[in-house]
Amino acid sequence: MSDATETCIVCDKVTTEDHAAAHRYFDGRRFTLCCPICLRIFEQAPDRFARGDRPQTLIQQLIDEIKWRDPSS
Ligand SMILES: [Zn+2]
């Protein structure tokens, strides 16, 4: 158990280590993903998130794509 807060690299949501959906390592750094959707987005362009170049256009495209493919959400 850990109460340490972490911030999702994709959407900036604050979560905790226990509640994060996943952690990914890239370029020797550890990134927190709050949910499966953020995980999928991160995996499209981990190098760009790692650089701090948060690709908003890419995020929006991928969110739209995921919503379209999964109308139940
Ligand atoms: Zn997130």
Strand and helix layout:
Elements: E1 5-7, E2 14-16, E3 22-26, E4 29-33, H1 36-44, H2 46-50, H3 56-69
Antiparallel strand pairs: 1-2, 3-4
Describe the protein in words.
There is one protein chain. The chain has 73 residues and is an alpha+beta fold. It has one domain. 38% of the residues lie in helices and 22% in strands. It contains three helices and four strands; from the N terminus they run ββββααα. Strands 1-2 form a two-stranded antiparallel sheet. A two-stranded antiparallel sheet has the order 3-4. The longest helix has 14 residues. The chain is globular, with a radius of gyration of 12 Å. Zinc ion binds next to loops.
What string gives the helices and strands in order?
A: EEEEHHH
Structural class: alpha+beta
Low-confidence stretches: none
* Helicity level: 25-40%
Instruction: State the separation between the terminal residues, measured CA to CA.
Output: 30 Å
How are the strands ordered across the major sheet? 1-2
The portion of residues forming beta strands comes to 15-25%
The radius of gyration is 12 Å
Q: Please report the number of helical segments.
A: 3
Mean pLDDT: 87
Main beta-sheet annotation: 2 strands, antiparallel
Name a few traits of the molecule:
73 residues, alpha+beta, two-stranded antiparallel ribbon, 3 helices, 4 strands, 38% helix, 22% strand, globular, binds zinc ion
Quick summary of this structure?
The protein has 3 helices and 4 strands.
